[in-house]
Amino acid sequence: MPMLRWVLPEHIQDVLPAEAEKLESLRCRLLDAFRLNGYQLVMPPLLEYLESLLTGAGQDLQLKTLKLVDQLSGRTMGVRADITPQVARIDAHLLNRQGVARLCYCGSVAHALPSSLTATREPLQLGAELYGHAGLEADAEVIRLLAESLQIAGVTTSRIDLGHVGLFRALAARAGLRDEQQESLFDCLQSKDIPGLRDLLGDAPEAVRSALLVLPTLYGGPEVLERARGVLSGLDDADVRGALDDLESLSRLLADLPISFDLADLRGYHYHSGVMFAAYGGTSPVALAQGGRYDRVGTAFGRGRPATGFSLDLRELAAQTPDGAGRGMILAGECSVPGFAQEVARLRASGEIVVIELPGHDGTWREAGCDRRLVLRGGAWQVEPLQGE
Predict the structure, then answer these.
(1) Does residue 110 sit in helix, strand or coil?
(2) With contact defined as beta carbons under 8 Å apart, do 54 and 62 qualify?
(3) Under CATH, domain 17-320 is a member of which superfamily?
(4) Where along the chain do its domains lie?
């Protein structure tokens, strides 16, 4: 059977008018909110040389990145799978500012494989990044901006989970695991696979083994940090204490937000360097937005700056937002009447969508999105409901 020419690849979808308008409206509102918070818009390219795209993020993006050969240079290029490393490159190599830089972005990315059975392979990634400040105040700022973004979208935030990659790194180092074993450890912690952890940590020191086995159970409210201090105190590890102190301080800075904790949530741990977070809301069973601190990424571009930020898939967020009722378009068909063009211009300037009636139109104007008509009555222009057309 010949392939149908209109069939798209799996997990790739067209965006039709109603959804496209919803996405564009949400994009504009969020980027405007970022601008009002001091975040400046950047637009990295869709394609880059593979070395640049994977620098700093490495293993986390290697399998997601679509690769091709540049016919001009013969070098391997990649279609971006994540815009965050690109923005880190812009901050480190192009802007080269000494003080704090706040940057934001929105654009399509491509994934070689979908992240889940229902996920798209072409997310519309939107995010904000803050460079040049190592304090928890910067982490608090981007988390608040994330919460504001969900509020603008009309999505109720059920919780914002905080974690810290420093806990994992400290415990994995004390367990004496090889790199490939750390990968397996990460997978077990992320899936909260306790039996798998027991098998993997059979030869680890007992104190470290016990700490790692309890880590997947440390999720919930403020009591989680108290429990973590109790079960991890026997390690007497400064990095562990520092990570827990960071989480406690950050939760105080964000006391008005629905903060919770998940100390085994380690997504993207290869390039994260400190606090990590994920926001949940609406009816989505998965995180609507993720972020954290990634101080090391810029080093590969010649300048390692403190960095923290978040990103989200605008498509996933828009799916959680209520559909606006909105007014339809106005149909205008009196083109030869004096004053017609001026009235159409006035309506459009006021924010109305006005379409000009074309001769020989097939179908109905309601199908085209019109619900009103511009008519001339008694020498005055009026907008009336469209009657059965």
Answers:
(1) coil
(2) yes
(3) Bira Bifunctional Protein; Domain 2 (3.30.930.10)
(4) 17-320, 329-385
